[in-house]
Write a structure and sequence with these properties.
The structure holds two protein chains of two kinds. Chain A is an all-beta fold. Chain A contains no helices and eleven strands. Chain A starts with a strand and ends with a strand. The mean pLDDT of chain A is about 95. Classes of the chains: A mainly beta, B mainly beta. Chains A and B meet through strand 5 and strand 10 of A and strand 5 and strand 10 of B.
């Protein structure tokens, strides 16, 4: 099965910035450049929340309302990677951030996640 | 935005018993585009069911999904020890994609 590995999480103060990365392993049947990719987050002890996604060529992107204007999403197909740049971070952005292949709105597979903690 | 409400919040059952999980949408889900995910402690979610009733690759047939419109159900016919986990429904018929709050299936 394709493997996605996130990195870049950590502790940041409110108002700060962080850049998350997600690298996809090369696997038969999973051509990274052929798929939409999404970021989904999960606050501690809470449910799942879709954050953003990006089209195969990087030219179409969507965001949840509460992160619009603060987060950007990008990808580098040569590196089989997708990124989430998070600016003006707030305490309520604290969560585990997962990347996932986005197939017509279905998320499969998921990475193991990276924890972002926004706290002073 | 479609709001998904899952019930019950927690289901306490014994291995071998039948589990019935409910997911209700605030409005009709286009083409019944509802999926279910399983999340075990400390792990990322994994896809179980999509298009309301189609099992993902490798998912055993004790898992089944049903429903239409605004009411959807995940049934686990006979609980195995590895099935005790949190289950989330998700709709992908309209944007933004949304998830339910989850149902925890715990050992009684």
């Amino acid at each position: 099965e394709a493997q996605l590995v996130e990195s870049g999480g950590g502790l940041v103060q409110p108002g700060g910035s962080l850049r998350l990365s997600c690298a996809a392993s090369e696997f038969p049947g999973f051509t990274f450049s052929s798929h939409w990719m999404s970021w989904v987050r999960q606050a501690p002890g809470k449910g799942l929340e879709w954050v953003a996604n990006i089209r195969q060529d990087g030219n179409e992107k969507y965001f949840m309302d509460s992160v619009m204007g603060r987060f950007t999403i990008s990808r580098d197909n040569a590196k089989r990677s997708v990124y989430l740049q998070m600016n003006s971070l707030r305490v309520d952005d604290t969560a585990v951030y997962y990347c996932a292949r986005d197939h017509k709105g279905l998320f499969d597979p998921w990475g193991q996640g990276t924890l972002v903690t926004v706290s002073s | 935005e479609i709001v998904l409400t899952q019930s019950p919040g927690t289901l306490s059952l014994s291995p071998g018993e039948r589990a019935t999980l409910s997911c209700r949408a605030s409005q009709s889900v286009r083409s019944d585009y509802v999926a279910w995910y399983q999340q075990k402690p400390g792990q990322s979610p994994s896809l179980l069911i999509y298009d309301t009733s189609t099992r993902a690759a490798g998912i055993p047939d004790r898992f089944s999904g049903s429903g239409s419109g605004t009411d959807f159900t995940l049934t686990i016919s006979r609980l195995e020890p590895e099935d005790f986990a949190v289950y989330y429904c998700q709709q992908y018929g309209s944007s933004p994609r949304t998830f339910g709050g989850g149902t925890k299936v715990e050992i009684k």
